[in-house]
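User: Need the bound-state model for magnesium ion:
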Amino acid sequence: MNNGILYILAPCYNESEVLPMSSKIFLDKLNVLISDGKISDKSKVVFVDDGSKDNTWQIIESLHELDSHFLGVKLSRNRGHQNALLGGMSTVADECDMLVTIDADVQDDVNAIDKMIDEYYNGNEIVYGVRDSRESDTAFKRTTAQGFYKFMSFMGVETVYNHADFRLMSSRAVKALLEFKEVNLFLRGMVPMVGFRSTSVTYDRAERLAGESKYPLKKMLTFAFDGITSFSIKPIRCITSLGIFTFVLNIIFIIYALVSHLTGNTVPGWTSTVISIWFFGSLQLIATGIVGEYIGKIYLETKARPRFFIEKYLK
Ligand code: UDP
Ligand code: MG
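Assistant: Bound-state model below.
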């Protein structure tokens, strides 16, 4: 099973500052792996231009002319990191045995690819790259990112802790991922749903080679919100729970209001007014939650996600 075809896929959005350096790093890595006999000479580095406004695509074109190990895919306009990744995957899924996705700024350590390939030959179909330390990130980015993973798991989204989109997937796993037809992409949540034998390798995350982050806080928050609302109906459940909680409080309050009324400690009209407010308030919350449960079901059904993938069939 050795000597498989490896494709390294990197999405690029306005990365003209970084590409001349990162393309060299990727190609060097590929060449070493080829000469070590770990991967086939048919292996490639694929850059996906996500509608860049600078001359990223011109650079990719000239790289392709320079060395046939470089391939380029260009999206018709900017569609975001996740779409760029999936667009690239769908274009090359049939041509490779294994595919590594990595950011174009080489913040992820290309040397981890060796370990990923070893794990692939060990029979794993998905190998997650997991950050060992985050010392290179600013304290702010580190705390927000860590909070992000914690909050996601609290909200019921299964993700791999400290893993971004640096991973190896077998061609079969990539094709399974492509069966997910949803438009709101959150690959970190979708890939674990694919299943198959999976493992992870750790690496140190470095600083961006050049240029600026294309993920400012606003985009990160949108991304987190997208992730939760694309994967979990837990926020709806929270409404039902809140409704039940206030309903219990409501019963206690009704008793209190009635006792106050009977002992004559109230002004006329108070008891009936507050009881109605509490009773209907909590009833409405519960009702909204129940309607929400159905909406949640409809929502999950409209995604028409694949129900299962067959891993093995002995016959
Ligand atoms: N990227 C993309 N489209 C976008 C934004 C980003 O393809 O709309 C790419 C970008 O070129 C990089 C990767 O996604 O290869 C990760 O972005 P970045 O390094 O800016 O994010 P950070 O590491 O700061 O979270
Ligand atoms: Mg980066």
